[in-house]
Amino acid sequence: MATFGEAELPLVLVHRPPNFHFPFKHRLQTHFRLLDPLDSDPPESTHSFFSRHSASIRTSAAAGTLLSPTLGRHFPPDVADLAVALLIDVLRRVSAGFRYVRAGLWARNGGFPLGFKLGGKRVGIVGLGNIGTEIAKRLESFGCVISYNSRKKKPSVPFPWYKNVYDLAVNSDVLVVCCALTEETRHMISKDVMTALGKEGVIINVGRGALIDEKELVQLLVRGELRGVGLDVFESEPDVPQELFSLDNVVLSPHCAVATPECFDALEELITVNLKAFFSNKPLQSLVPEMLSRRYEVGTMEPASVLDHVYPKGPAMDGGQIASRDPRQDSYWSKI
């Protein structure tokens, strides 16, 4: 039962996947009274919880807040940093060299296979949104030659644009995949695209696992038909194809490109500012684009409708905008 002081605070519903814990939840509680279905005793279904509390709750703080466009200025640099780190690791064999030294093979066998220079590589970026732009900015400073594929050519961008990913692959040494996952982009990095990239080609994926045909990727790697890959995302997370574990030209990361303390500090600030603005009847700093024309209060909706609005199921967009699918099904959140 809420104390008198708590009762005076605005009431906010926290909706999150079971394994996602707000790292700053205790700080939010100094400003708001939080209702979390996962904290109920005994445990209660989300729809049941919504039904019981919807009349008294005006807004919801959800994990989906992470996908708001305003955070686009915070997310892309962190994701771009990891994309470049994965590429350098694959080309210069950093992780493979570490394993070689740790296993005592340097002392026993001597020399280690040479890595490859990053400068001068032709890098094709799949999805030149906010993240892709940050990646291009970093790689250009290394002396890479940038080109890109996106739905439309961007008039203000000086890099060559390819209408389809196949042509991009033909003209690239490296593909960096950072677009959104939609029905149209699922498995867009197909066997044909990877074959077009060639045996000296490298693929980096910081987008979504299903953007790549993972089974075909594994087969090409096992047969030595790609130089290497760096993957932060996988098709059936957290399950990763076992064949990848024994390959020295593969660098794996547990879907954590965006997960930095600085990013969560920015997230905390945005959530707090937005909630305070909402309860003060002031404009929010960020809205999911699909909802820009809809001002709503959770108390006016049926539970299923609330969930659909908190987690929009519409088409995805580049640059940290609408989620390509329900974040409740995204295994990334279980890893934070």
Describe the protein in words.
With 336 residues, the protein is α/β, with parallel strands linked by helices. It has 2 domains: 4-71 and 261-335, 3-Layer(aba) Sandwich (Rossmann fold); 73-252, NAD(P)-binding Rossmann-like Domain (Rossmann fold, 3-Layer(aba) Sandwich), CATH 3.40.50.720. The protein contains 12 helices and 9 strands. The chain has helices at 4-7, 25-28, 46-53, 75-92, 94-102, 105-109, 130-141, 165-170, 191-197, 214-222, 261-279, 303-310; strands spanning 11-15, 33-35, 59-62, 122-126, 145-149, 174-177, 202-205, 228-231, 250-252. Strand 1, helix 2 (25-28) and strand 2 form a beta-alpha-beta unit. It is globular. The two termini are 30 Å apart. Residues 84-257 form the D-isomer specific 2-hydroxyacid dehydrogenase NAD-binding domain. It holds the Pfam family 2-Hacid_dh_C.
Low-confidence stretches: 62-70, 290-336
Helix-strand string: HEHEHEHHHEHEHEHEHEEHH
| CATH architecture assignment name of the largest domain | 3-Layer(aba) Sandwich
CATH topology of the largest domain: Rossmann fold
Strand order of the largest sheet: 5-4-6-7-8-9
Broad shape: globular
Task: Find the CATH superfamily of the largest domain.
Answer: NAD(P)-binding Rossmann-like Domain
Distance between the ends: 30 Å
Count of helical segments? 12
CATH class of the largest domain: Alpha Beta
- Report helical residue fraction: 25-40%
Mean pLDDT: 80
Q: In this structure, how is the largest beta sheet organized?
A: 6 strands, parallel
**Category from helices, strands and their pairing:** alpha/beta
Query: In total, how many domains does the architecture comprise?
Result: 2
| Strand elements, count | 9
What portion of residues belong to β-strands? 5-15%
